[in-house]
Design a protein that fits this description.
With about 400 residues, this protein is α/β, with parallel strands linked by helices. It folds into 2 domains: about 5-45 and about 310-410, Aspartate Aminotransferase, domain 1 (Alpha-Beta Complex), CATH 3.90.1150; about 50-305, 3-Layer(aba) Sandwich (Aspartate Aminotransferase, domain 2), CATH 3.40.640.10. The protein is about 35% helix and about 15% strand. It has 11 helices and 15 strands. A 7-stranded mixed beta sheet has the order 2-8-7-6-5-3-4, with helices on both faces. The protein starts with 15 loop residues before the first helix and ends with a helix. The structure holds D-malate.
Length: about 400
């Protein structure tokens, strides 16, 4: 009989968001009249920017004419999009990133997992706790961990606790780690990192030969002009970091699918024979073998993000969600809850009241207010006693959810 990848059997029951959906479905079936408001998964609700839609419609028309039809595109993405990204997201902020270092993909969740294809099996890996579960689960699947303990922590991973005490920014470890996942603005806590904090990580990574896997999917939500948007704004980062970006949250592409990963050309890791090899070459080889690129139509839509109209429209979208986040922070504070994040990020991280566990608070909120959030413990053991509320929803739903919470939740 064929054998399976038994690493999958180490995974905890289900991926967090399907598990939430399962519980919500049970509730909805038993309470068909309930008007459930979902502030759980960070999925956008507002329509695609007009500039993107117009560009995609035009691209569909291109596909209907032999002269402008497109078959397979470059696996790395079309150069016209990569050049816009290099100029618009990096060079404009003083980062020395070239179009050839940008790889277009169908999502940064996918890339965060796929990147492990090009790393060895014996790296020591550090994640924050709480953390976006994809970093952990993909390492489990790849066989980089042992079994999980009762708290759900996997043997072999190094967990760096983040909490209100350290402003949700991890302390640089004393020991040497090879791969470090950082996410700023942070999912799930909504925390941000200063240039100084990121510089400390880059200095650590350079001193130890480590690679930082930097998830900047939420960078567009940074409104504080002092905060860096990219790890490549930090001196020396091109020697030690890979960055993941997405059009999902800034331009509403969660259902459309487009993202990109930046792998600097000079970034190297050690081969078994001790030689240093450029990771760019391996990632390029990996993509060319396992990926056929994002559709021409979607890439044209993403390109429109960099037009004048596109920029204005995504700014308006981001401001809209940030205003939602502010309403959530204000109302929950008024209700007596301790809240974090939600200022330069679309997530509000809430301490559960009266010592309730994260899942107990999830149930209480669902059953008393019909509002869905995400239990902090789903992001790691140190997330226990916290709860994440997403600002991705309509204004009416956010206001209604907050009204239900302030009216009904006795804290
Ligand atoms: C979340 O809710 O954490 C997001 O949906 C993550 C993602 O974009 O995959």
């Amino acid at each position: 009989m064929a054998t399976l990848n038994s690493n999958y059997l180490k995974l905890k029951a289900g991926y967090l968001f399907p598990e939430i959906a399962r519980r919500v479905n049970i509730f909805a079936e038993a309470n068909p009249e309930a008007q459930i408001i979902k502030l759980g998964i960070g999925d956008v609700t507002e329509p695609l920017p007009e500039a993107c839609r117009t560009a995609m419609i035009k691209a569909v028309e291109d596909m209907g004419d032999r002269a402008t039809f497109h078959g397979y595109g470059p696996e790395q993405g079309y150069l016209w999009l990569r050049e816009k990204i290099a100029a618009g997201d990096f060079q404009s902020r003083g980062c020395d990133i070239d179009a050839s270092e940008i790889f277009i993909s169908d999502g940064s969740k996918c890339d965060c997992g796929n990147i492990l294809d090009i790393f060895g099996k014996d790296n020591t890996i550090a994640v924050t706790d709480p953390v976006y579960p994809v970093y952990v689960d993909t390492n489990v699947m790849a066989g980089h961990t042992g079994e999980a303990n009762e708290q759900g922590e996997y043997e072999g991973l190094i967990y760096l606790p983040i909490s209100a005490e350290n402003n949700f920014t991890a302390q640089i470890p004393d020991q040497k780690v090879d791969l470090i996942y950082l996410c700023f603005p942070n999912n799930p806590t909504g925390a941000t990192a200063t240039k100084e904090h990121l510089q400390a990580w880059v200095d650590y990574a350079k001193a130890n030969g480590s690679i930082i896997l930097f998830d900047a999917a939420y960078e567009a939500f940074i409104s504080d002009p002092q905060l860096p948007h990219s790890i490549f704004e930090i001196e020396g980062a091109k020697d030690c970091a890979i960055e993941f970006r997405s059009f999902s949250k800034n331009a509403g592409f969660t259902g459309t699918r487009c993202a990109f990963t930046v792998v600097p050309k000079n970034l190297t890791a050690k081969a078994a024979d001790g030689s240093e090899v450029e990771l760019w070459k391996l990632w390029n080889r990996r993509q060319a073998t396992k990926f056929n690129g994002v559709s021409y139509i979607v890439q044209r839509g993403a390109e429109a993000v960099y037009s004048e109209a596109g920029q204005a429209q995504i700014k308006a979208l981001i401001s809209f969600y940030l205003e939602n986040a502010k309403i959530i922070c204000d109302k929950l504070t008024e209700a007596g809850l301790a809240v974090y994040g939600g200022v330069n990020a679309p997530y509000v991280w809430v301490q559960t009241p009266n010592g309730l566990s994260s899942w107990d608070f999830f149930d209480k909120l669902l059953y008393t207010t019909n509002v869905v959030g995400t239990p902090g413990s789903g992001f790691g053991a140190a997330g226990e006693g916290y709860f994440r509320i997403s600002a991705f929803n309509s204004r009416a739903n956010v206001e209604e959810a907050m009204k239900r919470i302030t009216d009904n939740l006795k804290i």
